[in-house]
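Practice set, problem 2.
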Amino acid sequence: MKRLTISIVALFVGLAASGQLSNDDVLVRALQDEMDRSLAELQLENEPLPYFISYSVQERKSSTLTYVLGAHDGTNSSLVRLLNVVVRVGSKQLDNTNFLLLEATPDQLNEMGTPHVLPLTDDYDELRRSIWIATDQAYKEALVHYSAKTSAIANQTTAERVNDFSEEEAYQYVDERIPLGLELDQLANLARQVSEVFRGRSEVFSSYATAFSSTTKRTYLDSEGNFHRYSFELCNVRTHASTQTSTGAIVKDGTSALTRDCSRLPKIESLQADAAYMAEHLVDQRQAESLEAYTGPVFMESKAAAEFINQALSGLLVAVPVPMTASPQLNTQIQNIANQMVHRIDTRVFPRNISIVNDPTIDEYRERLLMGSYAVDSQGMPSRRTEMISKGILKNLLTTRSPVAELASTTGSHRGMPIPLPGNLFLQTERGVSQESILEQAIQIADSNGSDFALVIRKIANTQEIEMAHVEMSEMVSATMEGNVAVLPAIHVVKLYPDGREVPVQPMVIVDFVPGHFRDIVATTSQTHHHDVPASPLSGLNVLMAMIRGPGALSGYDQIYSSIVTPGLLIEEMSLRIASGQMPRLPFAPHPMADE
């Protein structure tokens, strides 16, 4: 331990001498000093010392303004400094992690530890006191998990174990650029002008626009010499709107304009145009046909394809140790959920003309910033390019420092959640064709199946643009438990007829889609497009958490995004059914603006 802590001291001194950190950086000194003391002295009688400690501090300033039809509806601003502490006891071969203590809180299931509020003032003594309390709590929780885990291992027959923590080379990264974000008056102007798009649209029953800006500084250090500090910003202008069909079914939609450089937000005219297009589609949905069920060819335009890949695939392209519990029955259920693709490495999982690469090191695509770019992950590991699928063959999976037997080192993909998450996912295709050719092929497949139309999906809901109801999240959990992929409703769907006629249909849900069906992609467009999507919480270990803790355990994804670069996809056969949901009675009186 002494050798490792000395390396952190040397790193800090070196960074200060080079001008990358100020000599009086009180926060880093407080973290370093308390880590040194804890590694040397933190021990209960007859209990193991910590063998690893990490501290991650996020200092975040954020503001959100909400407007409805041009009227100010709320402001939420915060300035907070949060500390996450991870303490590991035992050894890298066997420690307190990868074990679900059923009476634990959701935070205790997260490898990044429980968040603690730190004082905003750089007062060394108060920082040390707060860090001491947080470290002491994390150590006690680690001991409880370690004791329960060793007991469970002793009382159960388990397969050959792999180490709980990987050996990795120490990495340091410092970027002291200071992002500016947007001021309240700028946010207010954006939200107000976008919200005014819905004025006079009496067929839209409810709507609002929000403008969000945050700046975050993250400081990380651990007992193995890993250190990083950098700052980043996020701006987002969103709309939400809903109405009801003639039968009472609620339909909803939204828009989102994301950027990690607030100076590069789209111009207000573009934001208003997107909101107006969405509102027009929402109105069209009021008279859309109701298609109870469908099985046949489905063409997903690139926006829908990006969300489909995000929700249906990204949670499968991961390798995490299967967490055990004290319950053999629950262990069996966990085995059925986690790591569905680990044993498929070196086998074909996609058509042979498709390859997929995860590369968070790429900053831009066609002069647009990629939201999934990052230099270092939440465990202090550098991001890196990872070839996932090569010509249809699965080659690799995303990992953290918690290894599995087949994949013993990290891909730098720990982004603060229980499972690894992709950064920038590029779906590359050979033999792509024009969209017109794909639509003709879809009609031909439908005709051979005895149907006079095919389905085109233009947009799939995501958890940020659409406010999801509890019943919808529960359906997603159930789908995953049954071995199917979990995908939120397709909200822009049309029937496509041979003469080119399009007929809108009400939102539909993809059903009975299993990982093997990715091989049913029969064609792709030649053009690829970039779409930014919020990280999907609907797969793997995340769904397990929802099963044990309830959907509230899936919180925390608000500022984690991926960028998906994909062509449009034609799937030869896919099953969908009409989306279920609330059907309250229509309003008795018309909208107050109906006569304007």
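Problem 2, part (b): a different protein.
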Amino acid sequence: MTRPVARRTAPAALSYQVQAHDLHAHLFSVTLTIARPRAQQHVSLPVWIAGSYLVREFSKHLQGLQAYQGKAALAITQLDKCTWQLACQPDKPLVLSYEVYAFDNSVRTAWLDTQRGFFNGTSLCLRVHGLEDQQHRLTLRDAGLPKNWQVATALRPEKVNQKEFGHYLAADYDELVDSPVEMGDFWRGAFKAGGIEHQFVVAGAPASFDGARLLADTQAICEAEIAFWHGQAAKGKATQGKNRPPHDRYVFMLNAVGNSYGGLEHRHSTALICKRADLPRSGQSKSLGATDGYTTLLGLISHEYFHTWNVKRLRPAEFSRYDYTQENYTELLWFFEGFTSYYDDLLLRRAGLIDNATYLAMLTKTINAVQQSPGRQVQSVAQASFDAWVKYYRQDENTANATISYYTKGSLVALCLDLSLRQEGKTSLDAVMRALWQRCQGGPMTEADLLAVLQELSGESFAERLAAWVHSTAELPLQALLTQHGVNFERETAELADQLGVKVTESSGIRIKTVLRNSAAEKAGFAAGDEWLGLKADTGRGHDTHGWRLSKLDDVPLVLSNAKSFQALVARDQRLLTLQVSLPDAVKQIKLSARETARIDVWLGSAKQQKM
């Protein structure tokens, strides 16, 4: 991969040197040099990272902070949980040194052990108040590291060695902390899409990993999304002017582990984590189903890459400038996460990686997830966006009853908008997204901007529909819209857990995780944390004399036969309780299937078929 070279300018006002201090203790050492500090210089570490809406208190892992000017040690005054003040001589270089504990194997913070290093700048790099807009230099040292370790990052290299350790430049603090760094003995590949070089690195891949397939499929996704935003002219070649993609480089960083899933978007890169078993394997079937782990991984890749436009550039007006010291509230996550969730799977279809049946099966799963969440009748998706800081990212046993996911319901709002616009025949949500990009110049936007573009392209006001779909708890018109577009909207008997209204874990026996509001389980007295040990079925001739021990939920229908009620034996706080359970009339779930293939193809087909 040809690395973009940073332009040599005046020396950076701020320089960070990062080194793995102790692999076994999971400690990075950081030295920050401020060329021209203020007399009372404040520094702080962010409390959150953009794209993950929870105050995570990164400063809890910072230790051993010291400050010097020349050989003189300076007094450090801590002002709050994450801010320090240094009384120093102005315009004389100030050097701070500290260590950061790094043992969170997620995409949000930092990790260091003998196999791999990773960090986001929000976890390691102190913000120097008043100098955020100055150029920042990051130096990555390889001293003490295994000889086979290398570096991947979207930061622009200033001077690096063959393993890409060395000096990098960031235009400002925002760019520095929006550019994660991967270190280790990882797999690396590259491809071009839209004339732009893309790099893909994978840590933790097994010998069976099919890197060529991952590159080819990711390239198809990137080309489909560049074409979506900038037209077919931008697909496969570099373009100029308004059809030029907003990024000139991109790095996918994937960490394959035993059991995890997630991603975090950045302007020129993304950090991903997945199950090792979800990686493509040599000899694996090329056909993808809705429940395949690799399909899930491709959906994650599609989602995070779509964020390159939708949230990293086109973003809520409230995010015009991040405040790293506290929560940054917005009601628009239903648009930025929800609409991205709508397009992530849809663009897999348009890229030719899945077929119509697989897409409809994935959409079925999303609809059922929303319909089976009582919280949709409690909180609007706009309110859920605002409350992400205290509800979505702090989930507990009552989350499904109290709130709704702005990812899943937001994606269904996008679906309803798209199908409504297509039904009326003048435009589509695709065109609306591109027009929003142009209207807001790939920058801050408001809901008023969305309404204005909808009015302009459709000739109609969507204010009442958005008020109902986004700002109230009214049900979405899914059945009517999908039926009009050639989709069969059927109902079938739900799985047992959904009939009872429970979510469970089954690692060692059946443990109740969530009891849904107004469900049969709630009426019977089940509570989160209960261990469901056994049951006695009511056959109409008295309860089964002996009853049955349960080890997994699938055991229940085997011993329940046709009984509509039973006694459940549960353990709660070391006590055994017997609960009388009455099964409700058949609880239904949604099943989608194709009825009019030609009409569905117009909606789901390749980018070339999208005429509106």
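Answer key, part (b): The chain is about 25% helix and 30% strand. The longest strand covers residues 14-22.
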